[in-house]
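Per reviewer request, we include the raw input and output of the structure prediction for the construct analysed in the revised manuscript.
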Amino acid sequence: MTVSELYAFLNEKIPSSLSCEWDNDGLMCCPEPDREVRRVLVCLDATAEMAEKAINEKFDVILTHHPLVFHKLPALEPSIPVAQKLIDLCRAGVAVMSFHTRLDALAGGVNDTLAALLGLEEVAPFGEEGIGRIGTLPGALTLEAFAALVKEKLGCPAVISASGKKPVRRVAVLGGSGSDDVPLSVAAGADTYLSGEIAFHHLSDAPETGINLVVAGHYYTEAPVCRVLSELVKAADAGIQTEIAVSNTTVTY
């Protein structure tokens, strides 16, 4: 399978029609469209460390959630960090594919994965663009018990919680930065809202707003989707080796 064929497969499975209007994702870098894909590095971000790893360890593709190129580049020159990565990757023939908000909204994507990890049932989309998910726990929990569950399932070192003075049963989740959706989670009927980032004023207002808020970190609420991306690559071609970069460690599949 070539780079262009792999992208076509993933673009069909994770269609751009699901992306937010402001987003910029898809094929970020493709110096050799006809290059055969043998190894794919899956990670949340195409950091300088990941780019160096891909180049040194002879990966053909980096597959990420966050876009390598998000804002317009003023120039392609080495003093700009993103431009430097693009230059290095192009020289090495390494492609980069990023699937951002479309992967958030996708059935089975970031937020369905998050809901499944927490054991939510009767899960449905919520929010203006249907990116978030809302579902019900099998039984009510205290906020402390739910925070402990989140910490355990996501492997995060700590969580922040603010009490809305309610038991936890109807839970809304949005991986990554979800501060803007606090009011939408309330409107959707959630008693509890989990996200990676929530602004302080929402946390301080939680008792008056009447919703429990739990913050687990941008990385930890989105990293589980890397396994989903890895499985999609395997579905495209079982002969491709995928390696998931998780924090400072890697796992080979």
